[in-house]
Amino acid sequence: MQTDNSIDFASLNLIAPIMRAVQDEGYTVPSPVQAAAIPIVLDGSDLIATAKTGTGKTAAFAIPMLQLLDESGTPGDALRGLILTPTRELALQIHENLRAYGRHLKLTHAVVVGGVSAGPQIQALRRRPDILVATPGRLLDLMGQGKVRLRDVEIAVLDEADRMLDMGFIRDVRRIVDALPRQRQTLLFSATMSKEIEKLAGEMLHKPARVEVTPPATVADNITQKVMFVDQGDKRDLLVKLLKDDDSIGCALVFTRTRHRANRVARQLSQSGISADAIHSDKSQGARQKALELFARGKVRVLVATDIVARGIDVDGITHVINFEIPNEAESYVHRIGRTARAGAAGIALSFCNAEEIAFLADIEKLTGVRLEEVDEHPFRHQGIASQRDTGGSAPPKKKARGGSGGGGNSNGNSNGNGSRSGGNGSAQRGQRSPSSAENNGSSRRGGPRRQPRGEDTQSRPTSQREGRSNETAAPKKPHFGRRPRTA
Ligand code: AMP
């Protein structure tokens, strides 16, 4: 899971019982959809979120829903939260999550789903749950029988809206939404966005904020991934040797962690007679564009880049991506190496790994599920570092055993086992239970104003004023949560 480690649950303004529950669950940092959605929901806005199962989306709506309902009323008063979901399995899973995140709260929950006897569900409804998780068909049945009333619902969640459409539930959903009070907060989650979903959102949501989370990049099959174990001090010589000896390296993109090092590596390559340029965020747009053009036209053989600009590099014919330094975020590795093997061509990704980077390598192998093949025949091979890989040691080795000869194009054929393994020092993400990786296009606002208690005449901050959140429509100028007449 890609996480923004600068955001932790504490900065999301969660109440103590929920913080405790999150800790009980073993979550260390919010997933991107959680970091982005929780503040928006706590602020009282409607929300349209693109996120798949596995991104942590359930907590993204369940946690703020629990918090808002805990703050706004008395448990057992009325049904105030409704979660609609397409399948029985999902409903039960959401119910489990509500239990987990709400375990230190007094709020109660019930589930109504089809395919099983309605009796126990009716019993559960009589106990006046605060939150109901439901599939549309059974809920409509029970509404028809007068067993459930939605007139007090304050927050409604439409989960997996795209599947609701696919499964033909949309008419049922519309009828249920029609029975909800007009003044409510509505959250819509969908794995994909389509015109139909937009239309549905237009009907049901009021000036929603938007959060988009895209699934993790996967490594293309046509990229061969290799690793070379080498002391940091030998990386420069190794790079020069590789580029001089191996003619198959036609067009190489070399990644460093810092702009400074990108400049230095490019300079050193040039001094060694290898045409190279650097591209990073310190350079003007014009200089970057020029460097890219020369690289794309084959006038410059090596482009040394930092991660920041990697996204703008869309050049066909990059034969090699060389990680002069291994990124501490495994997702960055996937993104970096995706710059080669474009347009169906084959590509090679080579990573220079020093002692401190062993842990990053382990993260990458864990994320991609691929053990990087070692290139062990090169004069800078560091036996001590290589052996740390499998012992998981974190202390830098003292001795280095040089061996082999040649240009580094060979390998020992030790490929493609499942390399998932924990190393020593990890990246900040290590150790958390993670849903699948996800990338957040809409970042969160932290530490912003809390939603005011119901009934107070408050002015929520316009979405456009919220810091750092992208892909949002303008937020309501007036609060729309509570009993204010809806304008849309
Ligand atoms: P979901 O996308 O809601 O189905 O969640 C997928 C899995 O991720 C579930 O097993 C959750 O328990 C887990 N999960 C949710 N949020 C986090 C988090 N912040 N850190 C680690 N695991 C999480």
Fold blueprint:
Layout: H1 16-25, H2 32-42, E1 47-50, H3 57-72, E2 81-84, H4 88-101, E3 109-112, H5 119-126, E4 131-134, H6 136-144, E5 155-158, H7 161-166, H8 170-178, E6 185-190, H9 195-204, E7 209-214, E8 223-229, H10 235-245, E9 252-255, H11 259-271, E10 276-279, H12 285-296, E11 302-305, H13 307-310, E12 320-323, H14 330-337, E13 347-353, H15 358-368, E14 373-374, H16 383-391, E15 439-440
Parallel strand pairs: 1-6, 1-7, 2-4, 2-5, 3-4, 5-6, 8-13, 8-14, 9-11, 9-12, 10-11, 12-13
Antiparallel strand pairs: 7-15
Helix pairs in contact: 2-3, 3-4, 6-8, 14-15
Query: What is the radius of gyration?
Result: 27 Å
Helix amount, in percent?
25-40%
Mean pLDDT: 79
Shape: elongated
Bound chemical compounds: adenosine monophosphate
Name the CATH homologous superfamily of the largest domain.
Answer: P-loop containing nucleotide triphosphate hydrolases
CATH topology of the largest domain: Rossmann fold
> Given the structure, what is the number of helices?
16
The percent range for strand residues is: 5-15%
Strand order of the largest sheet: 3-4-2-5-6-1-7-15
How far is the first residue's CA from the last residue's CA? 37 Å
What would you call the structural class? Answer: alpha/beta
Please count the beta strands (DSSP E, at least 2 residues each). 15
pLDDT < 50 runs, ≥5 residues: 394-488
Can you identify the CATH class of the largest domain?
A: Alpha Beta
CATH architectural group of the largest domain: 3-Layer(aba) Sandwich
How many strands, what sense, and barrel or not for the largest sheet?
8 strands, mixed
Tally of separate domains = 2
